[in-house]
Specification:
The chain is mainly beta. It has a single domain, classed as Porin, CATH 2.40.160. It contains 3 helices and 23 strands. The protein has a 16-stranded antiparallel beta barrel. It has a 3-stranded antiparallel sheet with strand order 4-3-17, with no helix packed on it. It has a two-stranded antiparallel sheet with strand order 16-18. A hairpin with a 4-residue loop joins strand 21 and strand 22.
Length: about 450
């Protein structure tokens, strides 16, 4: 780790010492240009750095029985680093590309100290057929089945991405990344990605459950390759596919209408016990289809409408259910009071079954605020899942307001989330709890 920080220091020192050769800071020049090193005079070969920091200040109505430091906490207040990322993007020649991403996720007062930063991505690419075919490999977020299986976290339309679309997050991958070989490219309006991955062992996951039961879970017995793909037909303007991470909204800068479909498959990824107590293995099968529309609207084209709808089918085996609590403010749960949700802010986000997700946002014109840079964008997102194991549908609602200072670069979001609480025995919804999140972001 010390060597990595030393390398970064040397790189930045080199940039500063030779800044007059590579770039000249001018008044009103885009700060991202200042973080770019030009390798040639045409600017087609370069190395660019980006930094993103997202902080959450949160008030949460706790799940039943939530404990923190052995005390019952019906409510929690916490401050946390949701994401801190450093990226290097390098188009080092016509045919070769390098990319890495380093950072930390979900660090709050309950996290182990001085731990958590790691490489999210480390990728090399070769392009034998410009535009149409690129071959890449490494630790990567190129993955299949839906738009936000690989979200661009700095450009989400809401306060966060629809995380249920990362169906195997940390189960057999590393925050959605895997060691993979992938093909990507475009043919006309068709954008594609095809992936072959070597998943991580389930036993190295922080959520690994060694116990086998009637309900499927990821197996520690053996490992198999995973295949996936995602195809988009881009009816209007074309989106970049330099990185795997898909934009949440362009704030009216592009006119985009995409229809997408994809899958992910891994044989014998899960196991369970049959009625006769025999061990049965199950294939992981995921299928999804989605529509994304993001465009300027209004007479002056200075407003923007962003909408997204997705249908997802997860088959993780009988009764698979995963309760997810993002940067969970709870530490443990009193068994006598516990719900199915578990501690803190967790709820059954992922499982075997069907999901429909919709989100929509409207960006107001900045002229309303007599500003060239500031505007606001109200939004709403709803996840409706029918999980095989639950007796009632799982419906989670997020709604809020983005305060945009130069778009995504400087952004404050206020989000209200309302989530269901399920009984641990009947699997019926018994109540609903809420949380309020203040999200602060700088992305340059």
């Amino acid at each position: 780790m010390i060597r990595f920080y030393l390398l970064i220091f040397i790189l930045w020192s080199k940039v500063l010492l030779h800044s007059q050769n590579f770039f000249t800071l001018k008044k009103n020049r885009d700060i991202s240009d200042a973080l770019t090193i030009k390798i040639d005079t045409s600017s087609s070969h370069y190395i660019r750095f980006t930094v993103t920091n997202q902080i959450w200040i949160r008030f949460n109505e706790s799940n039943p029985g939530t404990l923190v430091a052995d005390k019952y906490k019906p409510y929690t207040f916490d401050i946390g680093i949701r994401r801190l990322r450093l990226q290097m993007i390098g188009q080092v020649s016509d045919r070769f590309f390098i990319y890495f991403q380093f950072g930390i996720n979900n660090f709050n007062n309950l996290s182990p100290r001085k731990l958590g930063d790691f490489f999210h991505d480390a990728v090399v690419e070769f392009t034998p057929w410009k535009r149409h075919l690129t071959l890449g490999t490494g630790l990567t977020g190129w993955t299949g089945y839906s738009r936000y299986s690989s979200p661009a976290i700095a450009s989400t339309m809401m306060y966060d991405a629809p995380l249920f679309e990362q169906g195997t997050n940390d189960a057999n991958d590393q925050f959605l990344r895997k060691l993979s070989i992938y093909l990507k490219g475009k043919f006309g309006k068709l954008d594609y990605r095809i992936i072959l991955s070597n998943p991580f062992l389930a036993t190295t996951s922080p959520i690994f459950n060694p116990n086998i039961s009637q309900y499927a879970n990821f197996t520690p017995k053996g490992i198999s390759l995973q295949t996936g793909a995602y195809f988009q037909y881009q009816f209007l303007e074309e989106e970049s596919n330099q990185l795997p991470y898909t934009v949440g909204t362009y704030h009216g800068k592009k006119n985009v209408l995409n229809l997408g479909a994809g899958f992910q498959f891994q044989p014998d990824a899960l196991w369970s016990l049959s009625n006769s107590n025999d061990t049965v293995f199950h294939d992981m099968k995921i299928f999804a289809g989605d529509v994304f529309y993001d465009a300027p609207i209004g007479e002056h084209k200075d407003m923007a409408l962003s909408t997204y709808m997705a249908y997802t089918y997860y088959d993780f085996g009988p009764g698979y259910l995963r309760e997810v609590g993002v940067m969970n403010p709870g530490q443990a749960v009193d068994p006598a009071l516990a719900s199915l949700n578990g501690t803190g802010n967790a709820y059954p986000m992922i499982g075997t079954g069907h999901t429909i997700f919709t989100q929509a946002g409207w960006m107001m014109p900045s002229r309303w605020f007599k500003s060239k840079a500031f505007t606001m964008m109200p939004y709403i997102g709803v996840q409706t899942s029918v999980w095989e194991r639950l007796s009632d549908p799982m419906v989670t609602i997020d709604t809020g307001m983005n305060f945009l200072f130069e778009g995504h670069r400087y952004k404050i979001s206020v989000n209200y989330q309302n989530r269901p609480i399920f009984d641990a025995t009947s699997y019926k919804q018994i109540k609903r709890n809420s949380s309020i999140i203040l999200h602060l972001q700088i992305a340059i």
